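anyone seen this seq b4? input:
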Amino acid sequence: LIQTGQAKRLPGPTTLLCSRILRKMQSDEHVKREFERLCYCPDDMLSQDEKDMYRAVMRQCSVLLYHMGEHLASKTALQMIEPDPTPAYRFVSRISMNGFTITTSESYPIGTGMYPRASMINHSCRPNA
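predicted toks r here
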């Protein structure tokens, strides 16, 4: 549970996926290389609201990882925010641009997944139209 003000709530799907990816990147260099090859939205094209949300996701991710005992991954999440949040913007943007919503057979969303090869056919990083 993540505490926000006085309320506690479960982390959202983006926070959960960020946490899983950061944990995997700590132990698997191949995962890190594959993730970093994915397209991301340039910082100057993100709105201030998106930037605020991306920083919040990384903060939540750091808290979640810390409570899971993943202190190195938690520290990595914090280092993406301070002093320069550009790495956080790029990290979460990769998930936003290349992630897929996982749904039930009734199309009820239950999570977010990353499938790097499938994301290559999902969009163009350099559209020509």
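The first helix runs from residue 13 to 27. The beta strands are 2-4, 7-9, 99-103, 109-114. kinda curious what u guys think
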